[in-house]
Design brief:
alpha+beta; Rossmann fold; Severin; eight-stranded mixed beta sheet
């Protein structure tokens, strides 16, 4: 797959089909949809940034690129998308074969523009962070949260604007910039948690327009609409100016004072607090890169967006309740958060969610608002857990492991007339710009060629789906102008520096059709990208299609794909073989069927929503690890080497390092564990053993450092209770009923799941029929 990884390192793009099935029929027969995974802000070491504005085609608005045809004599360029002829403006007068502008060089298919006009005219709004903090917590959790937040405040850049809202039974909006030259008394505005408030009510209650006429209703507000900078500075202040006030407020943060009867849950109005935060940002900084960071420590029980009643006798909804439609609060809460998502997208603001509790907090309901605004999400058991603390630090970190957070993005797609856009699965919201390029079939955020990306970072990856609108007979196609498809992606975004930039990626792909096209399709198949596309698609279908059976759908797709591209004689399973391009794909599907994206048993709706949100925003390499974890084996006799993800890899004298993205497991074989407990690693004559113990730990630390959200680290021993974190991910080739003789120091898995061998055996038998 090296050449596909090279393409990704050049343009940030991976496609299951790098040679495209040319007709609708061929595409249907090829089973895996025509899709593409694109990372708009993937960092490239040699990315060119041009200090001028791009040239656009006068009819289709796509941008001059290396695939344009140039007539140097007439100073004209022909657009590869709509074949319009465009004149070069006067400042391109000296263009010639030897003197080309950068955007026409064949190696610059991805390029960025930062026009000087943007630099001078824009008033740079610094980054804005509005902390929305749950205080319905036990004392211990309040303590953990305080210390994590005060560490985060130390990392925030001095010019960033910061605000604070706390909530329990009531929502408190804290005033940070008080008049009176620092001798002012801290004030906070209190709102009842069980009520829903409109933006006008919030603007009035917070006295934003106290001494001046309020603009006509329906106006967004902000400085443009006459809201004074002083009014805004009461609630959002530069970090350097309010650090002392904020830290004092956090120090004094108390557990919610309203008593809770023993048979009830605390009053927690998460929905009201997030809604008020959205209104405050909408009034103060509309259209700027602002983030609401919500820290939630339990289920919402009060006001709009509640997920469960206060009575402890009512359990929080499970997957079974959602399937049977017996979760009374679910649809109401989702509808409420859809409204907030719409408002935040309109304002250009992001909702980040940090959910830390042993119980569910409502991630499944909040998912729509976090995903449509491109927010970050972290799920942990406690605010004291390293998963939460280290992930929060990561958000504000600069340097090597910087997330590269950008804001206020707009993403547009242009494509050849024979392709149609079905939609996107990923963290974005449709801007409902319907045109000729939109397909009738809609997947995810569809019916548009333009999307809003309120928040995005250097790992954000969108999965785009396309349709072919070609003539059905290969002969008709043969007479067409060319056998190339072109695609162009435009990403406008606000760079960390505060300036607007535009990144352009232009691609061309060949299509083939008719008899004899199969070998070319096989040669261009990227099985990793295909597995990730299928994982996103099956997750989407499970959430949006009633009565959908994911296992059956995946199995049927795999059987159809293998019977279309495998070599075999009819009715002879032993004759079946797959090209190396397809050989790992059945294994990916085997692990996907067993993964947390498809198997919801044993996971709460919150956990399932969390796993799917991360899958929906991560790049191919990370997503593949979520589907099929990687396993590395460490022994005395050899350097660390990859091991098969199989129970046969377990041995008494081995250490295994499993990376399943969300969890990193260091597993000590039984002998290693005994030697470690006996303290051999501390004896000078057993230096090699100390090094063997240290190697997987160092590798795990390196993984954890660069990943967001930070994975959970589990260090366990063979036959110990935590060993389940490893065993659950392994192929059960020897189980309690398989009758296989167990190697000394090996292990069994207590499961009725089929093993990979049995799975492939069944696959071969079904394909050759």
């Amino acid at each position: 797959m090296a050449e596909f990884i090279d393409l990704e390192n050049h343009d940030g793009v991976r496609m299951p089909w790098n040679v495209i099935p040319g007709t609708k029929q061929e595409l249907n027969n090829s089973v895996i949809p025509l899709s593409l995974l694109y990372t708009p802000l993937k960092p490239f070491p040699d990315l060119l940034i041009l200090p001028y504005s791009p040239l656009r085609c006068r009819s289709c608005r796509s941008i001059l690129n290396p695939f344009s045809v140039i007539d140097y004599a007439a100073k004209i360029w022909i657009c590869p998308f709509c074949y319009s002829r465009n004149h070069f403006p006067p400042h391109y007068a000296s263009i010639s074969d030897e003197n080309l502008p950068a955007e026409l060089f064949s190696q610059y298919t991805t390029i960025e523009y930062e026009p000087p006009s943007e630099i001078h005219t824009q008033s740079h709004t610094p980054p804005v962070y509005l902390f929305v903090v749950d205080n319905c917590l036990i004392e211990e959790e309040v303590g953990y949260l305080k210390s994590a937040l005060s560490q985060a405040l130390d990392l925030i850049s001095d010019n960033s604007l910061v605000g604070l809202i706390t909530f329990g039974s009531y929502v408190q909006v804290h005033e940070l910039g008080f008049s009176g030259g620092g001798s002012g008394i801290p004030k906070c505005y209190v709102f009842k948690g069980s009520k829903e408030f409109s933006k006008d009510q919030i603007v009035e209650q917070l006295a934003f327009f106290a001494n001046r006429p309020k603009p006509a209703s329906g106006v967004v507000a902000g400085v443009r609409d006459g809201l004074s900078a002083e009014s805004i500075a009461r609630f959002l202040l530069p970090a350097s100016e309010c650090e002392f006030t904020l830290k004092t407020l956090l120090e004094e943060l108390q557990k919610d004072p309203w008593g809770v009867p023993t048979d009830q849950r605390p009053n927690r109005c998460t929905g009201t607090a997030i809604s008020i935060a959205a209104h405050v940002l909408g009034a103060c900084v509309p259209g700027s890169g602002a983030r609401i960071l919500a820290f939630v420590g339990g289920p919402s029980t009060e006001g709009p967006g509640a997920i469960v009643s206060k009575n402890l006798s009512e359990p929080i909804r499970s997957h079974k309740d959602l399937d049977k439609d017996s979760a009374p609060h679910y649809h109401k809460a989702v509808k409420f958060y859809e409204g907030i998502a719409k408002q935040l997208v309109h304002q250009g603001h992001v909702l980040d969610l940090f959910a830390c509790a042993l119980d569910q907090v409502g991630v499944a309901e909040l998912k729509v608002a976090v995903e449509k605004t491109g927010g970050l999400v972290v799920l942990a058991e406690s605010f004291g857990h390293s998963v939460f603390k280290d992930s929060l630090k990561h958000v504000f970190q600069t340097g090597e492991y910087d997330l590269g957070l950008a804001s206020n993005g707009i993403f547009e797609v242009s494509c050849s007339s024979d392709m149609k856009i079905q939609g996107i699965l990923g963290p974005c919201a449709s801007l409902e710009k319907k045109g000729l390029a939109c397909s009738e079939t809609v997947i995810g955020q569809g019916n548009t060629s333009s999307w809003k990306l309120c928040g995005l970072d250097k790992a954000t990856t969108l999965c785009l789906f396309f349709d072919i609108a070609k003539k059905e007979s290969p002969d008709a196609i043969g007479q067409a102008t060319s056998n190339l498809f072109y695609l162009q992606f435009l990403t406008y975004y606000q760079h960390v520096s505060g300036r607007m930039r535009l990144r352009i990626t232009t691609l061309s792909r060949r299509w083939v059709a008719g008899p004899g096209s199969t070998p070319e399709l096989i040669a261009g198949f990227d099985q990793e990208a295909a597995a990730v596309t299928m994982a996103r698609l099956v997750s989407f279908k499970m959430e949006n299609e009633a009565e959908f059976d994911p296992i059956r759908w995946l199995d049927r797709s795999l059987i159809r794909l293998c019977s279309r591209f495998g070599d075999y004689q009819k009715e002879n399973p032993t004759s079946f073989s797959l090209s190396p391009r397809f050989s790992i794909f059945p294994q990916f599907i085997f692990h996907l069927r067993r993964s947390q994206f498809v198997q919801v048993f044993n996971n709460s709706p919150d956990e399932t929503a969390y796993f799917r949100m991360i899958l929906n925003r991560e790049n191919v390499a990370n997503s593949v690890v979520m589907i099929q974890p990687s396993l590395i084996s460490y022994t005395f006799h050899s350097s660390p080497e990859p091991a098969l993800l199989d129970v046969a890899a377990v041995a008494a004298d081995k250490i295994l390092l499993l990376d399943s993205y969300f969890t990193v497991v260091i597993f000590h074989g039984v002998n290693i564990a005994q030697w470690r407990k006996a303290g051999y690693q501390d004896m000078p004559e057993h230096k090699a053993f100390a090094e063997l113990l240290k190697a997987p730990r160092d590798d795990a630390d390196a993984l954890i450092k660069e990943r967001f959200p930070v994975p959970r680290l589990v260090i366990c021993d063979q036959y110990g209770s935590q060993a389940r974190f490893l065993l659950a991910k392994l192929n059960p080739s020897s189980t309690y009923n398989s009758g296989a003789s167990l190697a000394p120091g090996g292990d069994l898995i207590f499961t009725d799941d089929v093993s990979l061998e049995v799975f492939l055996d069944h696959l071969q038998r079904l394909v050759v029929q």
